[in-house]
Amino acid sequence: MVDEMGFVRLGARFEPTTRKIGFVAAPPGDVAGATAGWIRSLGDGTGVDEIPGGLEAALTRMGALVSGRTKVLVVGTASPWSAVLDNGIMPDPSGVVSRMVDLLGVRGFYIVAEPNVYSGNKTKSASGASF
């Protein structure tokens, strides 16, 4: 488990992949299997790889997308929720989260984290949505 500041440093290192993170109220194996099945149903011959070593190892293997197929990472958390990230050029796990909510009949949400950017007295901050 990564402490809060460790997660912040980890998030900054793997930016932009970690800018938007989705959460689905289901075990990671269920979410990964349903996600792969859904993507295959769209005509993509996607597979599922289990990556040992934790979040940092998985993010390292996933890498930022330069070209090619977007990869989706599903990882367990310290709660009953699974985290969902993707490495698209403009990462956005909200599509996967909403589809998993429909397919698995569970709750989901995603968060968007932007660094604090000061423009006068206005601050850009984190936001999110739930399904």
Description:
The protein is 34% helix and 21% strand. By secondary structure, the protein is an alpha+beta fold. It has one domain. Strands 2-3-1-4-7 form a five-stranded antiparallel β-sheet, sandwiched between helices. A two-stranded antiparallel sheet has the order 5-6. Helix 2 crosses helix 4 (94-104). The protein is globular. The chain starts with a helix and ends with a strand. The mean pLDDT is 77.
Topology:
Layout: H1 4-13, E1 20-24, H2 28-41, H3 54-62, E2 72-76, E3 82-86, H4 94-104, E4 108-112, E5 118-119, E6 122-123, E7 127-130
Antiparallel strand pairs: 1-3, 1-4, 2-3, 4-7, 5-6
Q: What general outline do the C-alpha atoms trace?
A: globular
Strand content is: 15-25%
Order of helices and strands: HEHHEEHEEEE
Which structural class should the secondary elements be placed in? alpha+beta
Largest sheet: 5 strands, antiparallel
Counted by DSSP, the helix tally is: 4
From the alpha-carbon coordinates, what is the Rg to the nearest angstrom?
15 Å
Distance between the termini: 27 Å
How much helix, percentage-wise, in residues? 25-40%
Short overview:
With 131 residues, the chain is α+β, with helices and mostly antiparallel strands.
List keywords for this structure.
131 residues, alpha+beta, two-stranded antiparallel sheet, 4 helices, 7 strands
